[in-house]
Each structure stands twice: as structure tokens, then as C-alpha cells.
Amino acid sequence: MSRKDLTPNPVDDVPPAPAPPPDPQRQPPPPPQPSQTWNAPPVVWRPAPPEPEDPAADDATDLPGSSGEHLLQTTYGSRDRAERFYRDQMCEALNDEMVEFVRRMEMAFVATADAKGEADCSLRCGPPGFIQVLDRDHIAYPEYRGNGVMASLGNICENPHIGIMLIDFVRDRIGLHINGRAMIVDDDEMRAEFDGIPEDVERGRTPERWVLVEVDEAYIHCRKHIPRMLHADSDQAWGTDDVKRKGGDYFDVRKARKARKAASRERVPAFQSRVNGS
User: What is the full per-residue pLDDT of the chain (278 aa) written as tens digits?
Assistant: First the structure.
């Protein structure tokens, strides 16, 4: 019978060293909040797909619209309706009725995009006639002092294509699309080039520059989804630089950012004081 080896195993039989007692003066920092640990996933932009083959390219008639329009018209079975609309309603310049319509409009929605296709839509307002009809092929609207961002004008610098939407919500409930190419013209150059530009300061505002648009196409926007609205008197602070009268921080963006910044400043000293034992 063999003798049992009673030699201690240096690995298995040596008891582990006891853990050091916790330091009452040193507490771990509080667990981070989800908003501190979550990071937005990276944005991966897909490359622009190639322009689809235009199913209408072989037609004898050069149809308005894009290859994408024509492709979806064929896919969804609306090509006959679309061609009827092109034939009956699309114009390459403003007609008399469109000229009259533009001259009585008080607002316009202006769509632009930069060279990458990043889009922006902005609102422009003024008294009837603030959009100047220079001739059937050209219109212009004034640019006043704003927030300094220059979103629309910046896009036009990179990409001249522009879409303007005019809607009559009050009288006839109808809309007009004007698509074309735009350029930026300083106010003094605009007045030297074109007669009839209003000299009066409108509602306390003087144009700094103008957007001159060469019309490529104009067409109707039907009334079936346009709500009826009424004119109402209001104490509008036209041209004001008063932050509150302009709307201030209506959506609480600045307020929320200030609160997050203040909370961040408060967390750092509290953690340091616990580490230092004070």
C-alpha cells in the first residue's frame, strides 16, 4: 500500500489572499445614465443609385418630368393620367392667369437642395406683389435679414434648381407650382437691372438681396386637399430682432441643452469630492 503524498500543492491548497476592506472614504461613482452611455450609430449614406432607364425615352414626344416619374407611372399604371396632365396643365412659362395669381400671393414655400441633394424647404411671406413677375419667364422674391444661416441661399450657391409652391388658401383654394433655376442678385443690382422694383420699405424691412428665378415649368396644384382659411388681424412684429417676439425658444431646444450642460457641470464636482474624501 503506497503512502499518501501529504505535500501541499502550491496552487490548489494555498488559500487566496483576503480582499482588502472597502475604504469608506472612497465610493464608486454612480452608474452612468443611459443617455451618457448610448451613442448614436454611425450614419451610413448609401451611394446615389444610377438614374433609372426612362420607359418614355423612345416616345416621339419629349415628356416633362424625370425618368423616375416615368418609371413609376409605368409601374403603378398611371401613365395615361400623367400624360394627360402633362398635355393639359404643364407650361414652360407663366400664362396670363398664372401671372395674376403670383401677383396676389402673400406667401411662398421655397424648396432647394445642395450639391449632394440634401433638401430644405422654407417659407417666404409679404404683401400681395412681394413676388415680382418680371416677365413670363422670370420671377424674383426678396431676401430680408434673417437668422444668418442662409440655408436656401447656400443651397442655391451649390445647386440652382428651385421649386416654389404658391397656395391660395382664402379665395380660390388652388395652388401653383413654379420650378426653375435660381441666382442670387444684390438689391442695388436688381434695381439697376429691372424697372418697377418697389422703393418703399415694406413693413419695416428692406431687401438685402433677391432670388431671381428663370421658370422651367409651371403647373396647377389641385384644390381637393387644400383647406380653406381666413385672413385674421394680428399684431405681427414684421422685421423685429426681438427674440421673444420672433418666437424665442418655442421648441425648448436651447432650454434642454442648457439643462444638460448644467447637469454635466454638477456631476463632475460631486464625483471629485467623493474621491477626495471631502
Answer: 455 555 555 555 556 666 666 665 666 666 555 545 555 556 556 666 666 777 767 655 678 889 999 999 999 999 999 999 999 999 999 999 999 999 999 999 999 999 999 999 999 998 899 999 999 999 999 999 888 999 999 999 999 999 999 999 999 999 999 999 999 999 999 999 998 888 766 666 789 999 999 999 999 999 999 999 998 887 777 777 788 888 888 899 999 999 998 888 877 665 555 555 55
84 and 115 inside one domain: no
Same domain for 70 and 146?
A: no
- What pTM does this model have? 0.74
Long-range contacts of 82-86 (CB under 8 A, 24+ apart): 85/219
- 5 inside domain: no
Which domain range does residue 86 map to?
A: 63-90
Q: What separation in angstroms does the CA of 82 have from each of 77, 127, 161, 264?
A: 10, 35, 22, 57
Per the structure block, which three cell numbers stand in for 40?
Answer: 448614436
- With respect to residue 117, please indicate whether it lies within any of the assigned structural domains: yes
Could you tell me if 105 and 210 lie in one domain?
A: yes
